[in-house]
Structure to design on (183 residues):
């Protein structure tokens, strides 16, 4: 009778061992799947951050060229236009992102200065003077602080995914520019 009892115990040990192997295998498979999804999330965040950096670069280029003065110092009367910027983030000679910049639009304007020493109230109730009294200047041309809205759409060349980025840029404008671009 002893031999019978010992063989039953060996069979139970085999079944318990197989169950433990299945549980360990399932644990490894779940851990592998979690690590893959985390890796994809990190990759997506890196791609998004690169796309935002590409958009910021294009926005800086547009902001630098927004209503620059003419060669003779007179105010530019050339309306801002839409542009496309091809960005190579990793400097491998291939375009990584295409940044489409919509034509900048004048979003908000406040009067910055004027002749005669008047004051203007800007956003948030901040009052500032455009005073020329005591400066020897009798009349300055009217100037305006304009906030321009620059909107971009960045497309990843490899995946086709896109990201939108918007930014406001402040520009000091003359009366003629104000009347032409910010009706």
């Amino acid at each position: 009778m002893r031999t019978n009892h010992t063989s039953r115990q060996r069979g139970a040990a085999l079944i318990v061992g197989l169950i433990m192997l299945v549980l360990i295998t399932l644990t490894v498979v779940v851990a592998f799947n979690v690590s893959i999804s985390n890796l994809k999330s990190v990759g997506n965040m890196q791609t998004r951050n690169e796309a935002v950096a590409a958009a910021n670069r294009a926005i800086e280029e547009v902001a630098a060229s927004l209503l620059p003065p003419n060669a003779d110092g007179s105010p530019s009367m050339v309306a801002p236009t839409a542009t496309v910027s091809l960005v190579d983030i990793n400097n491998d000679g291939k375009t990584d992102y295409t940044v489409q910049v919509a034509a900048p639009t004048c979003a908000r304007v406040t009067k910055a200065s004027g002749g005669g020493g008047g004051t203007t109230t800007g956003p948030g109730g901040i009052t500032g003077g455009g005073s020329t009294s005591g400066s020897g200047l009798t009349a300055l041309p009217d100037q305006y602080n304009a906030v321009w809205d620059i909107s971009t759409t960045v497309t990843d060349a490899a995946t086709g995914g896109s990201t939108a980025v918007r930014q406001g840029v402040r520009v000091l404008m003359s009366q003629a520019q104000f009347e032409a671009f910010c009706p």
